[in-house]
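Quick one: C-alpha cells for this chain, please?
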Amino acid sequence: MAPPLPSPSMAPPGLIHSAPGPPDTCALLQLPAAAAASMSGPAAETPSAIQICRIMRPDDANVAGNVHGGTILKMIEEAGAIISTRHCNSQNGERCVAALARVERTDFLSPMCIGEVAHVSAEITYTSKHSVEVQVHVTSENILTGTKKLTNKATLWYVPLSLKNVDKVLEVPPVVYSRQEQEEEGRKRYEAQKLERMETKWRNGDIVQPILNPEPNTVGYSQSSLIHLVGPSDCTLHGFVHGGVTMKLMDEVAGIVAARHCKTNIVTASVDAINFHDKIRKGYVITISGRMTFTSNKSMEIEVLVDADPVVDDSQKRYRAASAFFTYVSLSQEGKSLPVPQLVPETEDEKKRFEEGKGRYLQMKAKRQGQAEPQP
C-alpha cells in the first residue's frame, strides 16, 4: 500500500479529519508515494487519486438497514470535489474551487448496510480546457468478516470556478497520461457528455403540477416535492451548494415517490446522468420534485427536477438547477425483488414520458445483456 499523506494536525498518521468527530468518521486519504513526497506548495506534484472511508451509521440508512443511495452519492461527490479542486489549484495562478457539472449514469451494484465501511476511491482520468473528469469506485467492507464488495462506479465532471468571481470558469491544468489512447478515449467521453448536457437543458422547461384526488398507480398519486432553504451547512466556503447535497435531496424525493407507488421497502438501483445546469447559492429556496415516468415488471423510473428560487433577489427569476432519472426496485423483508405495480399514465404528456422511459429501459437492458455475453 502506498504511504499516506503526512498529517497536518494532531491526528494519527494517514488520517485527516474532515470535521470534528470520532475516528470512524474521518476521511482516509491514500496518495501515491511520489505525490506524497513533496507537497510544499501549489506547484508541488499533486496526487491524481484519493480514497475516503467512513462507517455507515443508522442515520445513513432506511428502516430496513439499507444505506440510502443519496448517502453514497454524497460521498462520491465529496471525493470528486477534493481531487478535482486539488488538481485545478496545482499550478501557480488564480485560486479556484471545482464545481460539479454532471454525473454520468451510475449503477448500485450491491446494497450497503449499517455497520459496513464505505471505501470511496476517486481518480482524475481526463482534463479538457475547462473541465475535469473524475472516475470513482465505491467498495463496501464488512469489518467483522473482512468481505469486500464493489457497490458503485461513477464518472463525474467538474469545472473550476474562480474564488474571486464564482461565475468565472478558469482553465484546467493538463493531466499527464501514461499512454496516448487514454487521452483519445477521454476526449470522446468529453464530447459525448457535452452534447447530452445541451440536449437535456433544451427539454428542461417542464414542471411538476399538483393533482387533486389522484387515483392509485397514477403519476399524480405518488409524485412528491420537497422545499428546502439552502443554509451555510449545505454550501462550500464560497457560498454555493455542494453537488452531493443536491444529489442526496434528489434521492430522498425519488425514494418517497417509489415508496408511495409500491408501498414496500425500496432501494436505489441506478441513476441516469445528473446534469447541474446552474449553481444554487446560499439563502436560495430549492424545490425538488419527483414523479414516476415508467415502470417495468420489477423497476420504477422517477424523474427528479430541482428548481432554485432566489426569493429575496428580484433581479433573478426561478430557474432549473438540476435534473435526473432515478431507478428503484421493490424489495421484500428478505431482500428479494418484488413485482412493481404498473404505472397508469393518463395525460398525453404522461404517455409520452412513459414511452421515453420505456426506451431508456430497453436500451439499458440490451446494453447489460451485451456486456454479459462471453467475449470471443
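The helical segments are 33-37, 69-88, 180-202, 219-222, 243-262, 348-372.
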